[in-house]
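Protocol step 4 of 5: obtain the predicted structure for the target chain.
Materials: sequence only (see below). No template structures provided, no constraints applied. The aim of this step is simply to have a reference model before the mutagenesis design in step 5. Sequence pasted as it appears in the construct record:
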Amino acid sequence: MIRRLKNFFHKLLALFVSLYYLSPAKKITIIGITGTDGKTTTSHLLYEILKHAGKKVSLISSVCAIIGDKKYDTGFHVTTPSSFFLQKTLREALQNKQDYLVLEVTSHALDQHRIFKIPFKIGILTNITHEHLDYHGDYDSYLQTKAILLKNSEIAIINREDSSFTRITELVKKESKKKIITYGLKKGDLTQLKLQLKTRLPGNYNIYNVLAAYGAAKELLIEESVIRKAISSFKGVEGRYEEIANDKNIRIIVDFAHTPNALKQVLETARKDSFGNVIHVFGCAGLRDYLKRPVMGGISKKYSEISIITEEDYRSENLDEINLSIISGMKRNEDKKEGKHQYFVINNRYQAIKKAIQIAKKNDTVIITGKGHEKSLCRGKKEYPWSDCQAIVKALI
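Step 4 output (structure tokens):
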């Protein structure tokens, strides 16, 4: 009941702010991208494709907002901003004569009506996996919330090979006969099997992101040659499988993966690419979905030789209890694990990163997940300045 009242207030606020800024969204072509994982990479790639095509395009993602020639940092646990900031930014984009805006959209933003009164030309769904169930209550509620973006878009672009596909298409088709485009590695209207798109991005999980961006660009009538060139030259996004150069003959990778699905994808990729051991540094956030903690512990054990469990925005929760929950997932089916797996618990994130680099040997891969691009670390009720990349540079000295 309280949540409904809050969301009703959010809806009224969004309506008021839209009117206050004279409904700027009606004069810009807006592409919304939602999904559990892959939103940021897909958003930035589509932005780059439109830039390559000579379009005037702006971007709002969890990493940054780019409006005209100005770039704003949004790396403090925020993806879709408040309706006030969003409408203000849309007005700024309009004043900068922008024709397109690519917007990363979260389930929280959809549920809280932050995008109310924003007409979407295209809505993209990357995937729906285990996440945010602490907020939404159950998977189907989470799925129905994600469907809101597609229902409010002229064109829906959906991952044909994601487990959510059947239910999502039922929800979207139920209320309208909108155009639906599907994509996948082998199934869908757009497939990698047929298109053979070339990309620098690692892993099959990124092929899905590439296909989604490709589909949107085609619907926006961007030339095929321009799309392919932009995709092949795209180097990725800050904090997404970002490799940190060093002189120790080891690979060091930073990735934002903080869901079971994302973690599985990046660790599986790191495992395939590594000539030595995989050393994984990670934690789980406090006051967030606690059910995923043992699952992520099990995933880390499966794809790494050494796991170092540490802090990751534990907020007001007890860090030791969070870590024990992660460890419980590592202890399940211990006798079925091929080879030996070690784990350490080092609560201080910098010390955990330093330990990983110290024990790494030639050809080993150190992968640090959970924070990615973010610029702060929440301990208790206070946000402290933080950067995984800067911590790595310091630890390498």
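Step 4 remarks: The two ends are 54 Å apart (CA to CA). The chain has two domains: 2-233, 242-396.
Proceed to step 5.
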